[in-house]
């Protein structure tokens, strides 16, 4: 019989997953549901870019030393406003905010923590190229309620995430998420006329090995010998190992990651000596690397800082940066061998 209606909605999917966990209270479902509403609002604004006065920079430099775009601020605000009242969170951490974000006293608090990059790829906003939102969710470990005492609860290794994922605002808007523990990575596409995310990519598996490498080659002059050797490896000709790899780089982590997740390949943002204040490269452990590392691991891939798993790093600060090698397992393991100095030659 032909399928009636619109298929499985994200809400239905989250509820189904919740029912498989008898200990689940529904709090987590509420949390994800509200985040989805925020993403729909961001998606709507992103789609208006060029029409409304939402393009361009605010003139403000954020905690990351980067120009803040108007849509960065908007997205940050929307997520905070939508998430703060639901009674499930004890605090939040955002790429755009120097300190932890407190839950206002008029709202109840809960045991979850959400960290997020409200708008990833902001340099691509003005030129109509895919951008995204990245999130990771943790459970609080202590009984602390005071915001000054909650930092230890937030600074957990990525392995402790109870869920992670991203929204990509591209040719269509998608949500990709996982709750770990073998539940898989699932992708949902926003059906604009219905206003719902519908299951479109069930149980995504990343190919063991890809043919694509993604890196900002413009940083060549700032890389060390090991990094240069690795990049040469991907570009060298060798029929047996399928080289040279092809190159794809958008400059929006979410978009580069999403392509490689579906098609296979490796995304890299190595350590470099461009800026002495950022020896670990540009990307952020808590709001970018960890959530995507959880997604890729659950899809059969791997994420490394060049020396070991991203997910095992004990964070020292909220805005900590980390070198990132992420994607197909064999490609990332190979990169790790080059960078760690344990094997790997041209
Ligand atoms: P954000 O817009 O959240 O600051 O992140 C931008 C990041 C990431 O999306 C992308 O992979 C990287 O910056 C690109 O950096 P380069 O321009 O240095 O290649
Ligand atoms: Mn980002
Ligand atoms: Mn951002």
TrEMBL record:
InterPro entries linked: FBPase_C_dom (IPR044015), FBPase_class-1 (IPR000146), FBPase_N (IPR033391), FBPtase (IPR028343)
Pfam family, one: FBPase
Free-text comment on the cofactor: Binds 2 magnesium ions per subunit.
Fructose-1-6-bisphosphatase class I N-terminal domain location: 8-202
Catalytic EC class: hydrolase
Binding, Mg(2+) 2: 117, 120, 288
Occurrences of domain Fructose-1-6-bisphosphatase class 1 C-terminal (ranges): 206-338
GO cellular component terms attached to this protein's record: cytosol
Reactions performed catalytically: beta-D-fructose 1,6-bisphosphate + H2O = beta-D-fructose 6-phosphate + phosphate
Protein family: Belongs to the FBPase class 1 family.
Protein name (database record): Fructose-1,6-bisphosphatase class 1
Gene this protein is translated from: fbp
